[in-house]
Amino acid sequence: MFVLGHVGIAAGAVHFLDRKADLRWIPLAALLPDVVDKPIWFFLPGFANGWTRSAAHSVTGLGIFAVLALWALRERAWGPIFAYASHLLLDRMWWDATILFWPFEGFFLPRFPFDHVELWWQKLTDPWTMGGEAAGALLLAVLAVRGRMWDPGCRRVFRATGRLA
Ligand SMILES: [Zn+2]
Fold it and tell me: pTM of the prediction?
């Protein structure tokens, strides 16, 4: 899944569950597993072992994020925690159980067996990935209309509270 899918689906779901939820942290939380793991792949190739998903794409990463979010945001933490968890779901991490349950099946991840370029081409024709992108884009458009984001006053309320007016 790419940016629109993660951000749009997470923000749409959080807003659907609680119309007064603060949506400002949702995009970052929804993308955080990639924001953390892509640099790990680049800077610590011996650990990531050839794949751009590692520690932050695990239930351990989710647990650490949940503790930090609860500490920082208290009762408002559920939205970002939900957004982070949705990233693992949309990435279908159950297919990569050694990563999902890291480090319980070994601290160092097994060598990733597939070619990155080939995987990118696969993603572009994968209905799950591209359907998710379309759904995410549509949800972002619906949120922008619901929040009347063309109105400067509504944008000001959103910036100050994270709520769609
Ligand atoms: Zn990811």
Answer: 0.92
Å from CA of 100 to ligand 1 middle: 11
Residues with CB under 5 A from ligand 1 (ion): 33-34, 91
Q: Could you tell me the distance, in angstroms and rounded to a whole number, from the CA of residue 7 to the centre of ligand 1? A: 12
**78 CA → ligand 1 middle, Å:** 20
Nearest CA-CA partner of 56 in 25, 27, 33: 33
- Give the DSSP letter of residue 109: P
In the block, residue with structure tokens 């968890």: 85
DSSP 151: S
pLDDT digits (tens, 9 = 90+) for 89-127: 999 999 989 999 999 988 888 888 777 778 788 888 899
Q: Which long-range contacts (CB under 8 A, 24 or more apart) does 116-125 make?
A: 116/52, 123/2
Q: How do residues 1-44 score in pLDDT, each as one tens digit? A: 689 999 999 999 999 999 999 999 999 999 999 999 999 989 98
